[in-house]
Amino acid sequence: MTEFVNLYKEDSNEAKRKYYQTKLKFDVKEPKGKKELHKMLYRYLEGMQWVLYYYYKGARHWRWYYPYHYAPMISDMGSNIVENFLESKITITEFRIDSNCSENPKPYSPF
Prior knowledge:
There is one protein chain. The protein is mainly α. It has a domain at 26-85. It has helices spanning 2-10, 12-24, 31-56, 81-85. α1 crosses α2 (12-24). The longest helix has 26 residues, at 31-56.
């Protein structure tokens, strides 16, 4: 961890690149990696929106999930999240869901 912190102090872009390469297996300097990062950032925002809906309005549905094991670096969100990721919408109203999940809008219960 100290090695990462030291690298981040020296060159934050290289530290981020190393993080994404090691943890998520894509290179943010390549076009394919940039697209994957953008998709990841959108899904992360979508997750935050889902949690807010859950606590303030009730779950919209139970089929949404975050498809990555790690979170993006928050500094990659940029300065204008609404324009960069939400296509000038204030909130996400339609969540991308897993089509393999049940149509049942209720949470999974093992009993």
